[in-house]
């Protein structure tokens, strides 16, 4: 396996050092917590994070109009509670801290422990858990995937407007009721810290419903033309997102060229048009990746004028296409 790394044990630190060079508006504290250089003096502070390997999530969204801090674990590994606590304490300004957590057992447990520790120190902390991956039937077990990035943006907009922590949590949870995602993969991710591939798959196969850590999907089948793949994913999403007007994210998994994401977008648009659906806002690009896995995910959210206003609002993030 050939990877552009110095030493596999330094993957996270080297990555964050590189991030600081090109983003002087950011700082790294406690070795693994990315924060804004200029701390927000008022408004609810937003903290997210998780294992590395999903870049630009989540450190790339630490910016005005989005997150105040991102806690970075090792590759595909949850950050520890003490690091999450460091993030909470660093960004708290007295207006409360909202944790945005993807629904993985390690993330949920460690962010929850950090919340309890912060509350013992008198900091108000609330949590929203993202469960947008429709590939899992049981809602409580659904994974948090690319829809999380839309949450960062919506919550960031609300915070910038001075919305209270209670109201932000209510609005985000209401938004998440309608957000659904599903992914597919042609190839596995190559994990640089282990020197192993995330899973095995034949050159003639694709995985439908894949997770962002290479978790098993809904089915493995022969590779199809892209319109057939788009139709397959859309019809799965349609079982729960029935709105005729949509916000759609076509998210690259890290190894998919932009040219192919644009091709995917063409055929997603065609299938939706055939079904009488209108896309009011598109997001195309790498938002929540899986190292260098080739594939894409689709995220649907019912169109809502207030939500789209939030998604269109300015942010200084270099990685959020608005």
UniProtKB/TrEMBL annotation:
Keyword Kinase part of the UniProt annotation: yes
GO MF: phosphoenolpyruvate-glycerone phosphotransferase activity
InterPro entries linked: DhaK_1, DhaK_dom, Dihydroxyacetone_Kinase
Pfam families: Dak1
EC class name: transferase
Residue intervals of the DhaK domain: 7-320
Record EC number: 2.7.1.121
Keyword annotations of the record: Kinase, Transferase
This protein's record includes keyword Kinase: yes
NCBIfam families attached to this UniProt entry: dhaK1
PANTHER family: TRIOKINASE/FMN CYCLASE, TRIOKINASE_FMN CYCLASE
Protein name: Dihydroxyacetone kinase subunit DhaK
Organism listed in the record: Staphylococcus ratti
């Amino acid at each position: 396996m050939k990877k552009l790394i110095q030493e596999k044990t330094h993957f996270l630190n080297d990555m964050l050092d590189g991030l600081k060079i090109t983003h002087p508006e950011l700082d790294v504290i406690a070795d693994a917590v990315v924060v804004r250089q200029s701390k927000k003096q008022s408004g609810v502070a937003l903290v997210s994070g998780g294992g590395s390997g999903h870049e630009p999530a989540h450190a790339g969204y630490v910016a005005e109009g989005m997150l105040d801090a991102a806690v970075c674990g090792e590759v595909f590994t949850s950050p520890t509670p003490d690091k999450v606590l460091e993030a909470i304490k660093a960004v708290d300004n007295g207006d409360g801290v909202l944790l945005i957590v993807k629904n993985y057992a390690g993330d949920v447990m460690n962010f929850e422990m950090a919340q309890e520790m912060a509350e013992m120190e008198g900091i108000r902390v609330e949590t929203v858990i993202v469960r947008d991956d429709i590939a899992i039937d049981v809602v409580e077990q659904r994974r948090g995937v690319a829809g999380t990035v839309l949450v960062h943006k919506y919550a960031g907009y609300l915070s910038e407007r001075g919305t209270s922590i209670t109201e932000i949590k209510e609005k985000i949870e209401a938004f998440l009721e309608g957000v659904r995602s599903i992914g597919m993969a042609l190839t596995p991710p190559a994990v640089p810290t282990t020197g192993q591939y995330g899973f095995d798959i034949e050159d003639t196969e694709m995985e439908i419903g894949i997770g962002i850590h290479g978790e098993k999907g809904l089915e493995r089948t022969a590779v199809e033309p892209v319109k057939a793949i788009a139709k397959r994913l859309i019809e799965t999403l349609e079982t729960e997102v029935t709105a005729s007007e949509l916000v759609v994210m076509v998210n690259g998994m890290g190894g998919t060229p932009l040219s192919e994401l644009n091709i995917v977008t063409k055929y997603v648009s065609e299938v939706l048009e055939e079904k009488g659906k209108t896309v009011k806002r598109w997001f195309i690009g790498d938002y929540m990746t899986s190292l260098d896995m080739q594939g894409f995910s689709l995220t649907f959210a019912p169109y809502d004028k207030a939500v789209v206003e939030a998604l269109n609002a300015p942010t200084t993030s270099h990685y959020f296409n608005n």
